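Journal club prep — side note

Before the paper discussion, L.F. wants everyone to see what a predicted structure for a comparable chain looks like in token form. Sequence:
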Amino acid sequence: MQPEERRPTHPGEILLEEFLKPRSMSQVKLALQMRVPIQRINTLIAGKRGVTPETAILLSMVFDTTPEFWMNLQTGYDLYAAKKRLNRKAA
């Protein structure tokens, strides 16, 4: 039996661990820089919201990345979740 594919890390966790914490940046400061409600950042970090194209552009502007970086993280996470749902239905 093959081991199951590892679940991709949610983009919100990467945002927190790889971008906010190393910069000692708060969610509030990020929300202010992006000019979005704090809830948008908080729910993204909590894994309750995904990265939208608009959010990807705003994050790329703040952190000097590309919007594609953020969208690729979200797409990988979404594809994994969809495969899991389909596999459960087929079983």
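L.F.'s comment for the group: The helical segments are 11-23, 27-34, 38-45, 53-63, 67-90. Keep this in mind when we get to the figures.
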